[in-house]
Design brief:
With about 180 residues, this protein is an alpha/beta fold. About 45% of the residues lie in helices and about 15% in strands. It contains eight helices and five strands.
Length: about 180
């Protein structure tokens, strides 16, 4: 890579996705590296802090939000985009609050990810945007309450006024699209 190539770190526990994104970013002229977990990401950033980082939200061990915090603690100038297959308003707000520049839902291609780093590319809310379904709003509310309870399902169930098993069943379902 040339000395002027922007550096990007792809942090995702899914090896095929991580490797595909690293290749795609290299094809676009970036100095791309991959990390499978929080420890690898921290080591890579400590060795040579990236200008850009793409962080998966859900990973074993320390999750994506913790990785975002660690990367920004190493170098506050790093621009981070959070990528997830399990998006919710609560996690998007939390990611932005701790310093991510954007939050994308999977599947997202390399061009969409690169566009997310550009502050002018963030789409303004569309007045004709669809209203989320009741099921989607319920799912996002459950995710927010669960996040506020630090993942404690029993406490979240009590706060939501539903049985713990009912909450576990709802959590076991994929997120509602709309």
């Amino acid at each position: 890579m040339s000395e002027t190539a922007r550096s990007i770190l792809i942090v995702d526990d899914e090896a095929p996705l991580r490797e595909r994104l690293v290749r795609a970013m290299r094809d676009r002229g970036l100095d791309a590296r991959g990390a499978a977990d929080a420890d690898q990401a921290q080591a890579a950033a400590s060795e040579d802090s990236p200008e850009l980082a793409v962080v998966d939200l859900r990973m074993p061990g320390r999750g994506g939000l913790e990785v975002v915090r660690e990367l920004l603690a190493i170098d506050p100038a790093t621009r981070v985009v959070v990528l997830t297959g399990y998006g919710s308003i609560a996690t998007a707000i939390e990611a932005m609050r701790i310093g991510a520049v954007h939050y994308l839902q999977k599947p997202a291609d390399a061009d969409q990810i690169l566009a997310a780093f550009d502050p002018g590319s963030v789409e303004a809310p569309n007045e004709s945007a669809e209203v989320p379904s009741l099921a989607r709003v319920e799912w996002e509310h459950i995710q927010r309450v669960l996040h506020d309870c630090d993942g404690n399902v029993s406490l979240a169930a009590r706060l939501l006024g539903i049985h713990r098993r009912s909450l576990q069943r709802k959590l076991g379902k994929y997120p509602v699209r709309r």
